[in-house]
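Q: For a teaching session next week I want to show students how multiple molecules come together into a single three-dimensional assembly. I've collected the sequence lines for a complex. Could you give me the predicted structure tokens for the whole thing so I can convert them for display?
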Amino acid sequence: MSATSCNHAKEADRFTADRPRVQWHDQALWFVRAKRDAAAHAVEEWEQLRETASQIKRHTLARLPEYLEQFEENALRLGAQVHWARDADEHNRIVLRILQQHGVHKLVKSKSMLTEECHLNPFLEQHGIEVVDTDLGERIVQLRDQPPSHIVLPAIHIKKEEVGQLFHQCLGTESGATDPKYLTEAARGHLREKFLEAQAGLSGVNFAVAETGGVIVCTNEGNADLGTSLPRLHIACVGIEKIVPRAADLAVFLRLLARSATGQPITTYTSHFHGPIPGGELHIVLVDNGRSRIRADRQFWESLKCIRCGACLNTCPVYRRSGGYSYQHTIPGPIGSVLGPLQDAKKNYSLPYACSLCGSCTDVCPVKVPLHHQLLTWRGEIVRRGLLPWRKWLEMKVVSWVLRNRRRYQWSGKLAGWAVRWTPRWMLYNRLNDWGKSRELPEFPRKSFRELYRNRNGRNQ
Amino acid sequence: MQVGLFIPCYIDQLFPDVGMATVEVLEKLGVQVDFPIEQTCCGQPMANTGCIEDTRPLAERFLAIFRDYPYVVCPSGSCVSMVRHHYEAYLAGRPGFEELKRKTMELCEFLVQVLGIDRIDARFPHRVGLHNSCHGHRELRLGAASELVIRPYNKVRKLLESVDGIQLTELERPDECCGFGGTFAVNEQAVSTLMGLDRLQDHQQAGSEVITAADMSCLMHLDGLIRRNGKSLRVMHVAQIFAGRPLSGSPLATSLAK
Amino acid sequence: MAETSRDTILQSLRAARLESVELPELDPSWSQFADPRARFAQVLESVGGRCLSAADLQDVNRQLAQRTEFQQAKWIGSTVAGVDRVNFDVMGVGDPHELEQLDFFVAMGQFAIAENGAVWVSDAQVPHRALWFIVQHLVLIVPADQIVHNLHQAYQRLRFDHAEFGLLIAGPSKTADIEQSLVIGAHGPRSLTVILL
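A: Of course. Below is the structure for the complete assembly, covering every listed component.
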């Protein structure tokens, strides 16, 4: 494939080489999945909630232009300012313009996958603005100059020893300290200063309510909230798919969101911003950046129902063992593997194949995005667009040709059996035998089922 | 009652005893089994790679071969799911396709739903761990997936529990994928292997002697790992247990003895 | 510029018609509890908060006085009249940054939710919204008859018809971003006490 595409399996090799770390990563995420299970199973009407949430999203996406206009009208009425951005570049320029107009040099930011998607931080930094991510996990990866490896748990791939070392270098904590409580306290002190210095706060948005014009932000740390309640300027960046029609719909989504994400009944803080802080300004940036194109896509529009809870990442047996960075895309895991190729099919062609089609993501998804079905559909698209490596493509052509004829199939079976029995082991388990790298081949029996069956029936008659 | 027996290609070629055991189980229950010899493969490897045009002729063949049977029974959840859930793209609107979807059934499903069986007359005095193969579990809904908040049930497990002398083990992760996933096993060899090894570890801590499943493909992958790593676990398809195969008598077990 | 983008986005959305489904009716009878008060207390404790009951304001003062954080607090603020030892006039603060020194803050919560242990508060109760997050220890007093069963009922009560900041608070500020170890006191209050009055 071209140099611009990335191969998940190859990227995963780097992560899988460290077996104990893979095991640790898998168990940390399975622990979250287990908490999610306990929380979900405590809600009797869970499946009804999922179906209701899915219906609300379907309805909203179908009538998105009307709801966006309604949202804008109400937000303006409450005194917010509304901006529209077609793409990442326009989004970044809008944010920069607002900051420059207010003479902002120091910005505190809370978690927002949208701004990750738009690569806002490096853009603002290039223009001389200090950007501090205030979510603890985000701050850790920011200090390491890494992107988040998970959409809810940005630093899930980092061990406390590594955080200790990082904080020793960056925040002056004691050398060798690894206690999460101590390290969190140090970060609290460090980020308190940043909060107090900041001239503006930027947040992502979990839900934007059309009928009220409000934006809702969910956090556990209180960072989005503190970061937007000290300065007079709040910029809220919203993907256009975040709209819900009614405030009452929030009940459905909030009941699902935190339980799916971390197993909590609700996040610690659920802030409802209706209009700016008294005497201040609230700027809401509505961002398309490919969403209207996805919505128009008959095969993949349902991926826009996603509420970014991260449950599909936590449950994905591949994500847990390959790590977030193996996807080489802002959003990793099952949902990222659907969205990645929508953004750039050539670069991300391998992501739909980074999946055993186990279907756990589809069943765990609180808004019923048919994730593994979409990944399978993507594979068809990858082939249709000629993006599958030619060797795999040819293999399938040959196999299909063999299987279309009973005699060809039977002879190939014989030939394969003979080859496996008579090829010396060192030759059989060669470099190209990906099955045999870690597994024994099955033993080819001398007689196939159809032969045994025919023999038996022959005897009976 | 007559059924068309659908034996997946890899069972035909690699695990003939699983096919024979399926025939025996069905015949013992008075079912008249017919194996249409023209069958080869349902096309799943091509379909799961996204090679739609290479799958289409195989789906068409399948319909032509099986459309006249009152039921089509297969000892593989994954291949049945291919017919029921993924043939739509190739056969929608074809005469006989809607019926084919309804009447193509995985073995345990057929035993429970059509024959109304809740007991299997067989003896297997061993500690057995059930691997809930994903496509049977989450696409055919043979059991309640752990993600869903629904009343727990499991058709495969229920049948296994009725086998005389059997002891079913309890896993920490009752329905996590083994990492086979068809071409995934070779495309993502490293991750696939780690997934499989974790399943083996779970079965070992639970005390399973034998891992069983309604899908031989998962077991082929797990068995490959067992033999490479010299583990003491064994694998058997549920049909082999239902047919009363002894532990040492299974063809896989003999290969293990070598 | 922004005008054009707005039109472009809305036009491209209008160009693709999606099959619409009805907006589902919501069922407020979901998740009802035999004893909402007990359920609220239990859930709040499970998320790291503390739930107390008090007969009257005197009782509140008595219970606060027993708390070590309260005894050790240097600066205490309150928007509830009659709380003892208040020495920080939060109403007189012009710049919310000054609230940084505040150790203890007592305010009224409007109502509590049994299902998830959350309390609804809003700008209506405080001069600065930063108070909810910047203080070291937060106490919310909620009338004991103001406990709804679930979030559906909560949103039936709430009206968002004017500019106001409101939020649900469920427990103290927390994080598990370092190896999934739960640590209480991330950026916001290190403790949350809800007193049902």
